[in-house]
Structures are given as C-alpha cells and as structure tokens.
C-alpha cells in the first residue's frame, strides 16, 4: 500500500489525476549516440546552407534563455478591473537549445508567460512546459529532435533518417511522443492544457501565486491513442469538449472525439479523406462539427523533388468542408461542401442559421509554410490572410463565401460564451509584412464591409482599431467579459494581450476596452523581462482555482527494452568508423572541403549500416 501511494507523487512532489501520465523518458547516451551526432554534423556540413537567415530566431522572435519565477508587485499604469482577477497565460515557441540546422517558427519548445492578477496587483512568471522532448534534450544538453524547418529537399530526407536512427538505437525515447506543447492553451474539466497538434495534451497547474507546474501528459485513462488538435472547442452550454487528431501513417487520417464535461473521452470517430493533410483548426455549432479538408498535403516525395517543406499546397485541388452531426458514431452522415482552394489556420466561430451552417474564418490563399519558416523574407512579406464568412446549405448542398476584410488578419477571437452560437463581434490581430501584430481590430458582423478597401481601418464592418504605434507589436488578444455568461452585452468586457516595444526593448501586458476600442489602454502592466512574440493565449478566471485538481493514480510508464548490447555496439562503431575513414578532403580556396559525391555515398551507406545495427 505504501509503495502504491508513493507512485501518486512525481519528482516535484505534485500529485496527478487518473488519466495523467507521468512523463519520465529514458534517453540513452553512449557510442551510438555519439556516432549519430557525428553523422548528423557531417550531413549538416555538406548539405545545409548555413548562410540562410533565421528571422524567427532574431529580434523579439528570438528565445529567452531562462524561466522567470513569480515576480510580484509589477508597475501598473491605469487600473486592473476586478473581472481580471485570475491569470492571463500565453504560450509560444522558445527553443531552449540552438537548432542544429534550420528552424521553423513552429519548432520551439513551449514556454508559457503568465500574468497573475489579484485585487489590482500583478505578478509575472514564465515556465517551460516540461515535455518529454524538452527533458530529453536537457539530458543531452543540446538539440536532438527533428524539426519542421529541416524537412526540405534531400537534406530533409537525411534528417528524417537521423531522427529514425536515434529512435531505433534507443538514443531517444518516443514512448511519450515528441511534441513541444507550444501552440495553444485551453481549460476543461479542472485542467489547464498546453497543446500542440502532433502530440497529446500536457496538464498544467496554476498555483495561487501565479506559478505554473507541468503535471504530466493526459491520455484520458488510456483512451487517447492519437494526436490531439491545438484547437479543441469547449461548448459553454453543455461543458463538453470537441477535438480531433490527424496523422500521416495511413487512413483514417482524421479522428474525431467528444469529451464529456466530466472528462470522459468517447469512442473515436474516423473521418475519411483522400490523403494526409495539415488540419490546424475546426469548428462546432450546437449540432454539428465542421472539418477542413484543405489541400495542404503531407507529401515527402514533393519535399525531395521540389526542395519544398514536407507540407505542399496543391493549387489544383478544391477546399472541402465536412459538416458532421457532432454526436455521430461514424462519418456516414458527413456532408462535404466545396469552395475555391485555400488554407485556414484559424476559425473565429460557427453557428446554424436556418438551413445553413455559417463559418467565420481567416482565409489564406496559396499558402507556403516557408512564409513562417523565416528563411525567405519576400514570402513573409506576401503573407495574405483575410476574414471570410462561409455558408454551407444543408438543404441544397451548395456553399458560398464572402470576404469581410482586407489583409492581413489572424488570431480571431470572440466572446467564448457564444462558441457554437451566433455572435456579432470578432476581434483579430492586424499583421504587418513579417507577421508581427501591429494592432487589434474589432469587426461587427451585423454591418456590411466597405467594398474595395485595401487596408484595415475604421469604416463599414470595422468598428474599432487599436494601433500599437511605431515599433510596438502585440499578440493574440483574449476577450474577458465584465460579467460571466450572456446576460450582458456581447462586447462588454476587455481585451488583454502581451506587447513589446522594439524601440526600448521592453515588454508589457495591455488591457483595452473591448466595447469602445479606445486608444487609451485601461491598464498597462510593465514586465521585468522581454517576452518574445508567441502564439495563443487564455484567461484563467479566479473561479477555476476553486475547482482545484483531483488527484489519483498515475499510469505505469511504458516498459523499456534492455539495450545492454556491448558487443553489438562495439561492432556497430567499428563498421561505421571504417566507412567514414575513407573520406578524402581537399583544399579549395584555402578552405578544407569534402567531395560532395563521396560524402553523399558515405552518408547513404552509413545510414544503411546504422539502421541495421539499431534493431
């Protein structure tokens, strides 16, 4: 009994609820690890152009090196309204270790920046989400996991093989996934979840002083066996959470799930589509779930052939939208609608109106993930994202769309008490040429947009713009109502967001009036340290503290195979070094360089040998 009780507490002395998996990976150092590192360095030296700029590792996109424990009594200009008692949290990519080669904005380790507000006083904290990936790279003291930024051309194929070698040789432990938990935050069934769509959710605890602890990974009592979207939806009326996961190994490529208000995950519902895609978001109404089968395909062959990132947009394909009864047990009743090709990162909301299902979304034409890779500045400057209304007629089977804004708008938010129901106002970020947030915009969906507008300014359906000013940039703004529920006016509340002044190098949290969108902030909280630009945010209300966390049993970690194979390892190293010892170098313009063809042959041969020996 005492031994059982001991399992309820992890290394930090924090208990965990049933369904939360204690994350204790078992990476392994040794000769195999060293040799694979050496091979990776060789591939990078021969194949990677290190002169390429890394925009998303510089300026205020660049990471901060350390966490910040709770820092209390911060300077506040203005006043913090009582409805903001709670904690404002925002997550984003913050690589703890420099990348081996390329870096994509999606790649960094998840770091949460929090502002605890209590009785008009503010406390700042920042913490990494303690993922399996982060723990293993801390063990090695450097970057070991594959990155999206590396997945381009032949170099990408070789880096995939390096990653697989580390897995097969037991250098990396992938039994807990490989996610970064860097994308979004959501609260459901007494848990704050940190999300990234390639992994399962991580559970966080917000302490009274604002500090943040990672409790572990949630698998819903072993019922979750696939990835989990970064954008699940919580129905404010029923308390249920609706989610999905997507994969690339084989059909079904999409799996839909419903989680009860009590935290029970119902059986999986496979969604049939033709080939693997990236599906970043979806939507719900009172009676339907809306899936986005958009032509951004997972095509490794195109990656090598066209020297593109592994996700490739096919402009010859239509955009498809699947409307499924949200409690369906299979996808037999799904209705598919077609519209001109596009990609969508983020939806604002959806609802039903007569025979139609209405989706308010940010539509991107001809996407190229290099736009957020940071290597080609011209592509970043061509970023175009606009607010759209899409309608799907369940009676006629027809679909239509209407443009609601100029470019570029993203990170749309609404009053979340209206999720899945018709609402009037949408709040979004105004992006500049390099995807920095230069302002916050408020749209009134009851008003028609002004035709021919080429920039976002007040007029028509744009009823408010908060301009951050020259050299100042923000992030996703979260709406916090003055009173909970829908009894007050929909826009009666505040928008809260992180901001950074590139002129002074200082960061702050801004609070503005969501109703008036006044240029004078309600409050500005000065932060003690720089906060990099990031992704999505959430406001944890004071009432959540009262709900607490229910502690229970932790699942046993997966059993690991023995890797004590000294003789095999020695033979492995001998053979590998015998291969690489044949490398001949020559002097070219005073620099020692390797013969590329010979290097490629040796890399290929060594990879084959490594694969054989890793089993």
Automatic annotation (TrEMBL):
Cofactors, names only: Fe(2+)
GO biological process: carotene catabolic process
Catalyzed chemical reaction(s): all-trans-zeaxanthin + 2 O2 = 4,9-dimethyldodeca-2,4,6,8,10-pentaenedial + 2 (3R)-hydroxy-beta-ionone
Binding positions (Fe cation): 231, 280, 346, 536
A molecular function GO annotation: metal ion binding
PANTHER family in alphabetical order: BETA-CAROTENE DIOXYGENASE (PTHR10543), CAROTENOID 9,10(9',10')-CLEAVAGE DIOXYGENASE 1 (PTHR10543:SF89)
Protein name per UniProt: carotenoid 9,10-dioxygenase
């Amino acid at each position: 009994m005492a031994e059982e009780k001991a399992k309820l507490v992890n290394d930090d002395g924090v208990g965990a609820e049933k369904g939360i998996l204690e994350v204790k990976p078992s990476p392994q150092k040794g000769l195999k690890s060293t040799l694979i590192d050496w091979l990776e360095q060789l591939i990078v030296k021969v194949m990677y152009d290190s002169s390429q700029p890394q925009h998303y590792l510089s300026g205020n996109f660049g990471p901060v090196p350390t966490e910040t424990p709770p820092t209390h009594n911060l300077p506040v200009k203005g006043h913090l309204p009582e409805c903001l008692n709670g904690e404002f949290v925002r997550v984003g990519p913050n690589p703890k270790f420099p990348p081996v080669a390329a870096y994509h904005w999606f790649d960094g380790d998840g770091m949460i920046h929090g502002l605890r507000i209590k009785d008009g006083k503010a406390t700042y904290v920042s913490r990494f989400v303690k993922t399996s990936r982060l723990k293993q790279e801390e063990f090695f003291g450097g970057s070991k996991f594959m990155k999206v930024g590396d997945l381009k051309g032949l170099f990408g194929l070789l880096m995939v093989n390096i990653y697989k070698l580390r897995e097969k040789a037991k250098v990396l432990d992938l039994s807990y996934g490989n996610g970064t938990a860097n994308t979004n935050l959501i609260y459901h069934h007494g848990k704050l979840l940190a999300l990234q769509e390639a992994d399962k959710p991580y559970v966080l605890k917000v302490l009274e002083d604002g500090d943040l602890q990672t409790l572990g990974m949630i698998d819903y009592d072993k019922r979750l066996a696939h990835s989990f979207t970064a954008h699940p939806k919580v129905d404010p009326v029923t308390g249920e959470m609706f989610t999905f996961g997507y994969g690339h190994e084989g059909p079904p490529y999409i799996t839909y799930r419903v989680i009860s208000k009590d935290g029970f995950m119902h059986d999986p519902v496979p969604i049939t589509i033709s080939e693997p895609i990236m599906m970043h978001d979806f939507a719900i109404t009172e009676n339907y779930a809306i899936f986005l089968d958009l032509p951004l395909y997972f095509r490794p062959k195109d990656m090598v052939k066209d020297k593109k990132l592994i996700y490739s947009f096919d402009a010859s394909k239509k955009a498809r939208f699947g409307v499924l009864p949200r409690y369906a047990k299979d996808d037999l009743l799904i209705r598919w609608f077609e519209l001109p090709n596009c990609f969508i990162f983020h939806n604002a909301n959806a609802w039903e109106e007569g025979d139609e299902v209405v989706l308010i979304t940010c539509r991107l034409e001809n996407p190229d993930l290099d736009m957020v890779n940071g290597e080609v500045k011209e592509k970043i400057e061509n970023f175009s994202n606009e607010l759209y209304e899409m309608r799907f007629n369940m009676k006629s089977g027809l679909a239509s769309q209407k443009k609601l804004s100029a470019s570029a708008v993203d990170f749309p938010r609404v009053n979340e008490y209206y999720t899945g129901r018709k609402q009037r106002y949408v709040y979004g970020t105004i992006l500049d040429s390099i995807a920095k947030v230069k302002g916050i915009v408020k749209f009134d969906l009851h008003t028609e947009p002004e035709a021919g507008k080429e920039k976002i300014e007040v007029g028509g359906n744009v009823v408010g713009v908060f301009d951050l000013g020259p050299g100042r940039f923000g992030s996703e703004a979260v709406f916090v109502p003055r009173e909970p529920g829908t009894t007050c006016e929909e826009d009666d509340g505040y928008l809260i967001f992180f901001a950074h002044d590139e002129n002074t190098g200082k960061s702050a949290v801004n609070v503005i009036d969501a109703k008036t969108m006044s240029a004078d902030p309600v409050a500005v909280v000065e932060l003690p340290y720089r906060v990099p630009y990031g992704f999505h945010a959430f406001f944890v209300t004071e009432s959540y503290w009262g709900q607490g966390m229910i502690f229970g049993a932790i699942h046993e970690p997966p059993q690991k195979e023995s890797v004590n194979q000294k003789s095999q390892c020695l033979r492995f190293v001998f053979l590998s070094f015998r291969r690489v010892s044949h490398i001949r170098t020559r002097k070219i313009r005073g620099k020692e360089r390797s013969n590329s063809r010979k290097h490629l042959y040796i890399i290929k041969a060594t990879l084959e040998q490594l694969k054989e020996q890793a089993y």
